[in-house]
């Protein structure tokens, strides 16, 4: 199928999800401008795209205005793992709020479509289960996770106000836990932590009793959902949940990682972080009906690909240090 080539801005393009999105959009024949301040993103995530004449990387912090000419904007810039977004919480809120204002201002000047990478965290510690988009959430406004959760909620508010006030063409995706190759090995998220620990033969750290649940989506599925959402008609604004509805406990995830890595790591327990949500599972009825989307990669397949990535990464890091992994 032939498509019209567009100029597309991806903020946070050197991060985990952003790098896969840049790759997908380039593969579709678009010109891609990747903007990133490299807080959690890495050049190595997009190194394989650098040879393309259609790909450009710009170091820029989205809390400052940006003047470029594009047709579409995917706004992904924001640290996503709790240890990274809590490292400088004021900057995290600024990134979500000022970043949204700057990118919405850019979209307004250009009359460009703009998609916001929102999050299941807007539901906080949810009392409605599974979470539907019309649920307003249960969020602590003053806790350790608030810089991220409330920043993302305010960004959603801004998107809808720009839509109502300035007729901007917006798309809001609420992303649920996503994993896959190019996750940062030290970002503290559960999938990368468990795999790195299993591969190193170190104890696997389950926070709390491990009975809390999450629903894990493989990165290729998630990216497909984002692109489908962007390509919908102007009447579709979202918010739309994008995630894999297969829910599991964190203990079950640890057991799956041990089985698939063949590791002899033991399971140990560590304190539960503040405000850690007890349960999380997306209701994806809207994504199914409005985007014709649902995930296709099961956990075993996705984890196997992610484990292979981290195995290679460990070998590369060990070779760089001149030691054996
Ligand atoms: P990531 O940390 O790998 O990527 C975020 C990127 O944004 C990084 O490259 C980082 O350097 C960049 N960045 C951060 N602050 C910036 C700033 N002020 N200016 C410019 N660039 C900045 O995280 P990710 O998992 O790829 O997440 C991407 C987006 O998706 C985030 O907005 C996140 O909130 C959202 N999201 C992700 C998940 C998930 O499970 N991965 C879940 C929900 C929402
Ligand atoms: N978690 C864990 N051990 C780890 C890292 C995380 O048990 O080494 C738990 C964490 O407490 C949470 C779940 O795994 O209940 C998912 O954590 P993550 O930071 O990946 O994402 P989020 O809490 O934002 O969903």
Describe the fold and architecture.
Helix content is 39%, strand content 17%. By secondary structure, the protein is an alpha/beta fold. The protein has a domain at 7-176 and 219-243 and 281-296: 3-Layer(aba) Sandwich (Rossmann fold). Uridine-5'-diphosphate binds next to helix 6 and strand 8.
The CATH homologous superfamily of the domain at 7-176 and 219-243 and 281-296 is named: NAD(P)-binding Rossmann-like Domain
**Count of individual beta strands:** 13
- Largest sheet entry: 7 strands, parallel
Bound heterogens, unique: nicotinamide-adenine-dinucleotide, uridine-5'-diphosphate
The span between the termini is 45 Å
Concise account of the structure shown:
This protein has 325 residues and is α/β, with parallel strands linked by helices. The protein has helices spanning 16-27, 43-46, 82-85, 89-110, 146-166, 190-200, 219-230, 250-261, 285-291, 299-321; strands at 7-11, 31-36, 55-59, 72-75, 113-119, 170-175, 178-179, 204-207, 213-215, 217-218, 240-242, 247-249, 267-270. Strands 3-2-1-4-5-6-11 form a seven-stranded parallel beta sheet, with helices on both faces. Strands 7-10 form a two-stranded parallel ribbon. Strands 8-13 form a two-stranded parallel ribbon.
């Amino acid at each position: 199928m032939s498509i019209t080539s567009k100029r597309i801005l991806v903020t946070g393009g050197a991060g985990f999800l952003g790098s896969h999105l840049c790759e997908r959009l380039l593969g579709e024949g678009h010109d891609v401008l990747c903007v990133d301040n490299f807080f959690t993103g890495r050049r190595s995530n997009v190194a394989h795209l650098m040879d393309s004449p259609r790909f450009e990387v710009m170091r820029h912090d989205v809390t400052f205005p940006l003047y470029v000419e594009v047709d579409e904007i995917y706004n992904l810039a924001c640290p996503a793992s709790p240890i990274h977004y809590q490292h400088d919480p004021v900057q995290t809120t600024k990134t979500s709020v000022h970043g949204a204002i700057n990118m919405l201002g850019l979209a307004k000047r250009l009359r460009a479509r703009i998609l916001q990478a929102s999050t299941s965290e807007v539901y906080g510690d949810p009392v409605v289960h599974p979470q539907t988009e019309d649920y307003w959430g249960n969020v602590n406004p003053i806790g350790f996770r608030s810089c991220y959760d409330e920043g993302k909620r305010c960004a959603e508010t801004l998107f809808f106000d720009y839509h109502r006030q300035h007729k901007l063409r917006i798309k809001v995706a609420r992303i649920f836990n996503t994993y896959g190759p190019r996750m940062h090995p030290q970002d503290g998220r559960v999938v990368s932590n468990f795999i790195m620990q299993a591969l190193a033969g170190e104890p696997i750290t389950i926070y709390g009793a491990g009975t809390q649940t999450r629903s894990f989506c493989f990165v290729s599925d998630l990216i497909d959902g984002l692109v489908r959402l962007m390509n919908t008609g102007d009447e579709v604004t979202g918010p739309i949940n994008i995630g894999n509805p297969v829910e599991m406990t964190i203990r079950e995830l640890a057991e799956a990682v041990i089985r698939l890595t063949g590791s002899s790591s033991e399971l140990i327990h560590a304190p539960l972080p503040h405000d850690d949500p007890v349960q999380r599972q997306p209701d994806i009825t809207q994504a199914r009906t409005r985007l014709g989307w649902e995930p296709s990669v099961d956990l075993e397949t996705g984890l196997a690909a992610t484990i292979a990535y981290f195995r290679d990464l460990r070998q590369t890091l060990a070779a760089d240090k001149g030691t054996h992994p």
